[in-house]
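for the writeup, i need someone to sanity check this before i put it in the appendix. the sequnce is what the collaborator sent (i think, or maybe the updated version? ugh). structure was predicted straight from it, no edits. if anything looks off just tell me and ill rerun, i have time this weekend
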Amino acid sequence: MILITGASGQLASLVAEKAKEAGLQFQTASRSLSADRLMDFDRPETLDFSGISTLFLLSAGYAEDDVIMKRHGAVLAAASQHGVSHVVYTSLSAAGDHLGFALAHRWTEQALIESGLGWTILRNGLYAELIGMLAAPRDGRITIPLGRTPIAAVARTDLAEAALKVLSAPEDHAGITYELSGTRPFSAPQLAQRLAVTYEPSSFSAERERLSALPLLPFQAPMLMSIASAATGGFFRSGATDLQKLVPQPLDALSVAYDAARRASN
């Protein structure tokens, strides 16, 4: 039996949908009452993995690093206690080491490798949907500073397909770390051209000031600024990716980002 955590989130929902279509035996887990198993990573007593052979651990990334590490540590301890055989963890691509939220991912990877559990690590690239949302035009302009270097973003659907491939036969992917950045990078100027708007990136200080006026949690603005600074520095350009080993025909990330930007700007 497979257990998919974070079931109320967009990626996990896609994985569950594809697992159902593929006829896999699975259950879902989250803090939502709509999940098959009610689990709160902040309450270790709710972490019941009995009867589960493969755990799809979606990173609990919306918190401070110490909170995330505590959550993931509790999950791995409970998985070991309840006899889980294999954990598939959604991490962050190597290019993301410059991001403000990379530390908790790397800590979890190391903890998983040292746990004694079977494991596969999916190092997901930046979502094309996220880039599109962040770059949604305002007054005919894209102003978020993302540099001019192509960004190897990847469609969330492709990451769900990659996860499904691993979950269908986890033993075939044991002990492997997959780098899942996009195969067709695009730049902010290219996205602006597709949207028929101009790309006029603001300064970092102006972007930080804009974010400070939004209803964000304290850790979120630095996370978003780290995306802007790493993109501007060219750290998300095309590199080695294993995506087509798991998804032979990935989607066009620029088109996915375009659609997301259009939705976000309406």
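The longest strand covers residues 86-92. The radius of gyration is 19 Å.
thx in advance!!
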